[in-house]
Design brief:
Distance between the termini: 35 Å
Helix content: 55-70%
Strand content: 5-15%
Order of helices and strands: HHEHHHEEHHHEE
Structural class: alpha+beta
Radius of gyration: 19 Å
Shape: elongated
Number of strands: 5
Strand order of the largest sheet: 1-5-4
Number of helices: 8
């Protein structure tokens, strides 16, 4: 059995949480309704290992220009009294993980019928040590992509830009970590953008209830 198949097998056989089971039931119901309306489903998903590996790679590529620019511009490096910074950075990063998922939920909630309260759900996959935010209803392409990339933009790209403007290494490190935390979101967005729809224009995007990625419904 190949490594990729082993990864898929492990993910399929892991014990689902009660929340995942409920979402899986709702997913099947929604799938049936959309297929009844003439939609065809295409899974855009990947394994946890692939998401972590490629996600970090793509995020590193995005963060690299900011880091290179900072040092090329010869902006300030840490001063003498920096013993407090690692602790503060770690604390802010832990808090930002929660904020990251909250930004997903708020952004998606603004673009869907029923809003945040009814359709956004948060959770944690223990086996992968991965927090998540998921939307239980289908979305348009623009809404899904904007909601996916918003945390990386707010917590990663913007702090990196501020680091270059104000010459602040603390902002640069925080921003780079914010971009790395959004690696999986970047990967999923690239899967959406590189998918060839074969000319079908009516598309809806629905979070997969148990896998990393989504289901694309098109007709």
């Amino acid at each position: 059995m190949s490594d990729e198949k082993k990864e898929g097998f492990q993910e399929e056989t892991r014990e689902l949480t009660d929340a995942e089971k409920r979402r899986a039931e709702l997913f099947e119901k929604t799938k049936g309704e959309l297929e009844g309306q003439g939609y065809e489903m295409k899974e855009l998903t990947c394994s946890i290992v692939k998401a972590n590996t490629l996600g970090i790679l793509y995020a590193a590529i995005l963060a690299a220009p900011f880091i290179i620019a900072y040092f090329c511009m010869k902006l300030p490096l840490p001063g003498e009294d920096t013993s407090w910074q690692p602790f503060v950075m770690m604390l802010l990063f832990v808090v930002s993980i929660v904020v990251h998922e909250l930004i997903h939920g708020i952004t998606w909630g603004l673009g869907i019928k029923g809003g945040f309260k009814e359709n956004i759900e948060f959770g944690f996959i223990v086996q992968a040590l991965t927090p998540y935010c998921t939307c239980k209803v289908p979305m348009k392409k623009s809404c899904y992509i904007i909601g996916s990339l918003m945390p990386c933009t707010i917590l990663g790209i913007i702090p990196c830009i501020l680091a270059l403007v104000f010459g602040n290494l603390f902002f640069l490190i925080f921003g780079a970590l914010g971009i790395l935390a959004g690696g999986g979101d970047i990967l999923v967005t690239l899967m959406i953008l590189t998918y060839k729809s074969k000319g079908k224009k009516d598309q809806l995007y629905l979070d997969h209830p148990t896998k990393i990625g989504l289901a694309l419904f098109e007709r």
